[in-house]
Design brief:
Blueprint: E1 2-7, E2 19-20, E3 31-36, E4 41-48, E5 51-54, E6 65-69, E7 80-87, E8 103-107, H1 112-115, E9 119-120, E10 131-137, E11 149-155, E12 169-172, E13 184-188, E14 194-208, E15 211-219, H2 222-234
Parallel strand pairs: 9-14
Antiparallel strand pairs: 1-14, 2-11, 3-4, 3-6, 4-5, 5-8, 6-7, 7-8, 10-11, 10-13, 12-15, 13-14, 14-15
Length: 236
């Protein structure tokens, strides 16, 4: 099998399954657009009152960055600039690099008190082949990154554990493009709680016997989850 790995420049597999979704209730309201004063943009989600989880490869040093929860052509809720950015200091080997492609921004304001925030979980094989995951992000190829788009019923295959039992995670035929980087892969439960299992990192396209397909690859793991817990204590 021949393969190609890219950051989210855009890979659509067959029919585009992304659809506009501007639900302003929790937990959807905790997902937002991250924008830099350079025009650079990514997606992210609150995982604490002032803590935003996104992708490590989104981070630009020494630049002003703003998080806008629920953004839809304009601010829907209050926004806030970030004061700190924490990235994984662990370096993997090849495929394991994607597992650590996450970052946590600390905001000036406690936006999570207004819009809510997610919990975070470590990947579990028990959810393999189950349609339990959703993703929301701001794709640059749809709405110019100004509107939230959703992927629903994403499936994680238990065959796609290239690094270790904690990630990175893979979901089948996931339509992702630039701007969605850092957006959450999450599970919303019937009791109203919601947990992020990973963040959008890269797309893997594969070719075999004249057939082609691909997977979305999501940063995840114990280091990500424990860092979120630590930062929520250090920056209440």
């Amino acid at each position: 099998m021949e393969g190609e790995v890219v950051h989210l420049e855009g890979r659509i597999f067959g029919e585009d399954n992304r659809f506009l979704y501007n639900n302003r209730s929790a937990p959807w309201s905790a997902v937002g657009k991250i924008s830099w004063n350079t025009g650079h943009m990514c997606s992210g989600a609150l995982v604490g009152p002032r803590h935003v989880l996104t992708a490590k490869h989104c981070i630009l040093n020494n630049r002003t960055v703003t998080f806008r929860p629920g953004y839809d052509n304009a601010d829907v809720f209050n926004s806030s600039q970030a004061t700190h950015a924490f990235v994984s200091t662990k370096i993997g080997d090849g495929i394991c690099d994607a597992k650590e492609d996450w970052a946590v921004l600390i905001l000036e304001k406690r936006l999570g008190d207004e819009v809510g925030y997610f919990g975070a979980k470590v990947a579990e094989r028990s959810v393999a082949d189950k349609t339990v995951f959703d993703h929301v992000g701001y794709p640059g190829d749809l709405g110019k990154g100004k509107r939230p788009y959703r992927l629903s019923n994403l499936v994680m295959s238990e065959k796609r554990w290239d690094c270790d039992a904690l990630g990175p995670m893979y979901t089948d035929e996931s339509d992702l493009a630039g701007g969605q980087s850092g957006g959450p892969l999450f599970e919303a439960l019937e009791d109203g709680s919601a947990y992020i299992w990973g963040v959008a990192s890269t797309v893997v396209s594969w070719y075999q016997g004249g057939q082609k397909g691909g997977w979305g690859r999501w940063a995840s793991g114990n280091n990500m989850v424990t860092t979120i817990a630590r930062l929520r204590e250090e920056f209440p």
